[in-house]
C-alpha cells in the first residue's frame, strides 16, 4: 500500500494533475512523514518521490518545509536511516540555493555527516560531494570539498575509500593542474599500489575508471609515470589468467570461484577502457605497446570479456586508421567466435569495420577490395551458418542485414559465387519470416551492384521461376516481398522491364493470401509506371485489377481490392518529363537508372579490355557511356515488358489501328454482363467530370478502355443467338463523355452514357466487314480528325461539329468511327 501510494504521488507530480502550490500543501507533509519508515523499500520509494518534488518546489517552500527540519534530522542523535536520508536530500538541495546560503546553512551539515561515526553515512555523504561541488563552484570545492575527499580516501572503511576514489575521478575536470599533480596524482598512485597488495576490493572500480583517470591526468604524467600506469593496465588485462589449476569446476572452492568472477569483471572493464588507453599511448605506438594486450583480450577464455572487446572493436579500428591492418586477424577470430553473443556485438558495426579494413583507414575508396584478408569470406559464411543453426534468429536477421555492405567490400564475383545462392536457400527454406525478408533485401542489393549482365539475368530468372512461379505459396509471397525491395532499390524502368508482368500475373494465384498481398503492393507497382512510355503496362495493370474486382470470390480479398481500386484511382502518375510534384522522386530514379547503365558500360569496357589486351582510355569510356542506352535482353523464359511500340517494330500503322478498334469494342461486351455491374457504378461516378489532359485523367480513362478476351467469351454466351462473340457493340467510354467542355457548350452537360443489360436497345451491326475499309480511310491525320468530329456530331447533335472535340476523341478513334459508321445505341 505504501509503495503504491508513493508511486501514485510521483505520477501526480509528473502528470501535473494539480498545481505545485496545491501539491505542496496536500502531499508534501505526507511524503516527509513516511521518509523514516521501518521498511527500507518503502522508505526509499518515498525518498525518490521527495527528490523529484524538490526539483519543482519554490525556494521558500524548500527552505521552510525541508531545509530547516533537516538540521535536526542530520544530528548524531537521530537514527542512521534518518542521517542517510539527510545526506541524499542535501545533495539535491545544493543546486536550488545560492552560494551564500549553501556556505552558511548546508556546508556545515555536509562536514558533520562526512565525519559521522557510521561508515555507511560517511560513504553516502561522500558520493553526494560531486553534486555539492557542482553547485558551490570551483573555489569552495577546492577549499571545502577537496580536503574532505582527501581525508575520506584514507578512511578505514573500504566502501568509504571506494566512494572517495570515484568522486575524485568524476571531479577531475574541476581541479586545476596544480591540484591534479600535487594532490590527486599521489592519491591515485596510492590506490593502485594498495589494490594489489592489501585491498583487492577496489580493483573493479579502479579498472572501470582507469581510462577516464589516465585521460584526465594525461598532461601531468612524467614519462616514468606514464609507463607505470600503462604497465598497471596491462597487468589488470591478464589478471587471473596466469593461475593454472587442475581442478574441475565442481571441485573449485567457493572462495576461488568468487575471486575468478572478480578477476573476470576486472578484465571486462579493461576491455571497455581499451580505446581510451590507445589514445593514452598514441595510436602510432599501438603495435609496440598494446597489440599483445589486445590479442589477449580477443582470446580471453571468458565470454563477457570477448563480448566487451567486440563492442569496442569499431572504436579501436577508427583510432588505428591506417594501422587498422594490424587487427585483421582479431576480426577473423571474433567472427569465428563460438559464442553468438560475441558475434552479435561485433556485427552492430560490421559494415563500418569492413569499410575501414578495405580502405586501409583512408577516406578514399580503393579499387582492390581486401586483397590482404583472404580469410574474411570463409569467416563471414561460417558466422552466418552458426547463426542459422542456432535459435537466435534475431542475430541471424541482423547479420543478413549487415551483409548488404559486401558489394562495397569484396568483388562482385565473390558475392555471386559465395553469397547469392545462400540467400536463395535462406529465402526458400528458412522458417522465420524476418530472416527471409532480410535475405531477400540483401539479395536485391547484391543484384543491384552486380557488374555482370549474365549473372544478373540468371538471378532474375531464378527469382521469377523459383519464387514467383514456385509451387509453394510461401515462396510466391516472398517473391512479392522481393518485388517491393526491387521497387525501393532499383529504377522504375528496371522493375517494369523484368518484374512488372510476373508480379501482376499473381492476380490469378489460387491462394487468397497471395492475391491479398499483391493488392497491398499494387499502388507501389503503379508508381513505377511513366506515361506515355508505359501506357500498355498501365492497361495490363488495370485489366488485372478489373479481373480481381469482378471475379474475386474471397470476401477479404475483395474488400482489399475495393480499397486498392480507390487508392489507385486517386494516384497521380509521373510523366516522362520531370514534374514539380514528382521532381525529387524522378531525380532519384534517374540517378538509379544512370548507375544501372553505368554498370553495363563498365562490363562492356572490361570485355573490350580483355579482348583487345589493352587499357581503355577515358575518351573511350565516355563514348561507351553515351552509346549504351539499353540493357541486354533477357532469355526467352523471362517475360520482359518492352515500353511502347518501337519505331522499328514490324507492325504497320494499319495493324495498330486495327488492334485499337478491336480493343475499343471489348468494353461493350463487359458492360452487358450482369456480374460486372460494379464497373458501371464506378464509371458513372466520374463520367460527368470535364476532360483534362492530366496524367490521372489518362489513367482513369484507360481503366474502362481495356480488352479482356475472357470477358468477351463469357459475355458472348449471355447475348442473343443472333450476336456472335466478335460482334462490335455500341461503345461507352469515359474519355468521350469527359471530352465535353461544359463552359463552352453553352448548355447543360450531356447525361453520362451508361450501357446496361436492361433498358438498352441494341442495334444490329450491318457492316462488320467495314472495319478494314474504315481503318484504310483513316490513314492521314486530317482524315482521323474529320472522322472523330463527325462521330461527335452524330453522338451529340446539340453541340455541333467542333474541331476541338476531334482531338479529345482521337485516342479512341476506332470506337468512335465505328459509332459514326453504325450509329450509336440509344440510351
Descriptors:
43 helices; single chain; globular; mainly alpha; 827 residues; disordered C terminus; two-stranded parallel ribbon
The computed structural class is: mainly alpha
| Largest β-sheet summary | 2 strands, parallel
- CA gyration radius, whole angstroms: 40 Å
Tell me the span between the first and last alpha carbons.
80 Å
Residue-averaged pLDDT, rounded?
75
Range of helix content: 55-70%
Helices, by number, come to 43
Share in β-strands: under 5%
Strand order of the largest sheet: 1-2
Structure description:
The two termini are 80 Å apart. Helix 41 crosses helix 42 (803-809). The protein is mainly α and 827 residues long. Helix content is 67%, strand content 0%.
Compact summary:
The protein has 827 residues and is an all-alpha fold.
Q: Which helices and strands appear, and what pairs or packs with what?
A:
Elements: H1 2-15, H2 20-33, H3 40-54, H4 59-73, H5 80-93, H6 99-114, H7 119-136, H8 138-153, H9 158-170, H10 177-197, H11 203-216, H12 223-237, H13 254-272, H14 274-281, H15 286-289, H16 291-298, H17 303-320, H18 328-335, H19 340-346, H20 350-359, H21 376-389, H22 393-402, H23 412-429, H24 433-448, H25 453-468, H26 473-489, H27 492-498, H28 500-504, H29 512-527, E1 530-531, H30 535-551, H31 555-570, E2 574-575, H32 583-612, H33 618-627, H34 653-671, H35 677-686, H36 695-703, H37 709-718, H38 734-738, H39 742-745, H40 770-777, H41 781-795, H42 803-809, H43 813-822
Parallel strand pairs: 1-2
Helix pairs in contact: 1-3, 3-5, 4-5, 5-7, 6-7, 6-8, 7-8, 7-9, 8-9, 9-11, 11-13, 11-14, 13-17, 14-17, 17-19, 17-20, 22-24, 23-24, 23-25, 24-26, 25-26, 26-29, 29-31, 34-37, 34-40, 34-43, 40-43, 41-42, 41-43
Biased composition (Polar residues): 712-742
InterPro entries: ARM-like, ARM-type_fold, HEAT_type_2, PPP4R4
HEAT repeats: 106-143, 145-183
